[in-house]
Amino acid sequence: MRQTSQISKLTSVRAGFMALALTIIGAGFSAAQAEEAPAAAPAAAAVVPGKPKTDPAAGEALYSNGDASRGVVACVGCHGPNGKSASGAWPKLAAQHPAYIVKQLKNFKEGTRANAVMMGMAAPLTEQDMANIAAYLGKQEPSPGVATNKDTIELGQSIYRGGIASKGVPACAGCHSPNGAGIPSQYPRLSGQWADYANAQLIAFREGTRMNAPKMTVISSKMNDKEMKAVADYMAGLH
């Protein structure tokens, strides 16, 4: 009986050592596997589409020379060197906010702003072209102008700075700033702009031939010809 008991105890001890050995070996094997396994690849970052990176030099090349291979006509012929046009038939574009220029070019291309010449000019332009041209023009020095009608300067100033309360016309300065510099990405620069061009746009808004700025359609519908001419002339002299 004593011998049987001793054998039983020995068997239990051996079984315990075996179990411990297997546990240690298993743990070591698992650790080796973890070290050898390649690290999990990091999750790919979400790609957020952004605006095209601008290249003012490329914009200047298109503005000044066009690109005959794609049917892009140079802008300089009408809008002048550096965006400083020679007459009110074409707007001054020097120092205009790039976001505003891009919007207008897109509107011409889409047909939401009607102008036979500009719709044709914008048709071959890519979004990158538009951004480049706008970036180039935005870096140019503003083109100064002058108010020429002394008989309406007070009326023009009154409308620009205070609006026409009796007609519900807000002050232009509220959006285009007191000096006509506008607000980037929202409202265009008007200071120094040709009075003839500014007046023509106010008429176009009022008559519905330009419809890509609903707020301006509402405002201009409340103004008469004399008021439009007066404020357009006043804006030409802002700086």
Specify the overall morphology.
globular
Considering the protein shown, what is the CATH homologous superfamily of the domain at 153-236? Cytochrome c-like domain
Quote the average pLDDT.
Answer: 86
- Uncertain stretches: 1-48
| Proportion of residues in β-strands | under 5%
Radius of gyration: 36 Å
CATH class of the domain at 153-236: Mainly Alpha
Could you tell me the number of beta strands? 0
Here the CATH topology of the domain at 153-236 equals Cytochrome Bc1 Complex, Chain D, domain 2
Structural class: mainly alpha
Order of H and E elements: HHHHHHHHHHH
Brief rundown of the structure:
This protein is mostly helical. It has helices at 2-36, 56-65, 76-79, 98-110, 116-122, 127-138, 153-162, 173-176, 195-207, 214-220, 225-236.
Would you write up a description of this structure?
The protein is mainly alpha-helical. Among the domains are: 56-138, Cytochrome Bc1 Complex, Chain D, domain 2; 153-236, Cytochrome c-like domain (Cytochrome Bc1 Complex, Chain D, domain 2). It has eleven helices and no strands. The protein starts with a helix and ends with a helix. Mean pLDDT is 86; it is low at 1-48.
